[in-house]
Amino acid sequence: MLNLVMTMFSYGFMTRAIMVGILVSLCLALLGVSLVLKRYSMIGDGLSHVGFGAVAIAMALNIAPLVVAVPVVMLSAFLLLRISAEGSMRGDAAIAMISSSALAVGVMAASLSSGINADIHGYLFGSVLAMSKSDVIFAAVLSAVVLSLYVFCYHRIFAVTFDEAFGRATGVRVGAYNTLLALLTAVTVVVGMRMMGALLISSLVIFPALSAMRLFFSFKGVVICAAVVSVFSFCTGIMISFVFNTPAGASVVITNLMVFIVFSLLGIVLKRGR
Question: How much is the pLDDT for 227?
Fold first, then answer.
């Protein structure tokens, strides 16, 4: 095991992928608990599709992908929240409409330019080779911001997650914190999309929170367990990918699925033992 870890870290691209992956997994696990409890689970999936569309257009115009993707995805997150809050359309319907439209625009832009080349394929399904030094720095700064805001706003996020009416009654600016959660998720999804792929990045939002909820029933317990599960699943998945030469994103998702099944079985056993 130690030799395998040392071999993985001897490659620069693997070191960068592991560092970015751990930071993105940790951030999305923390944000994912609130999103799952608020029934915004699919917002990560919708935003990743929007990110793919923005990246495809940026590459067609020969512009740096993140320069286009970050503001477009943040704007989409804001619009999704506004549509859901105003009640003009159900949240899941709004996400499905925006995500499918963005994916279609991305595929169309790619087809009219260079076609589905290796770069586009990497953004769709992920690639450990896509991480650069600037991505590592960006992910480190982003993680510091997300973790700081999460710890500083923990009690307000707790109130907004479980009871928005109670939060408003106690003076919490519910709309502002919902927007903060969506914007942080949007930026984290864009960073992680390069490695996990637009079609798979939402798994880092959903699986750790759902797995943790099989065994823990307090908000703090679920948050801590989800963070540990997410980092463990990513590290295990990336090791499987390295050893068996399998796609990194798919390996991480399957590992998360296995953890969810194990936690579900443990939850059933513990419930029967009470």
Answer: 92
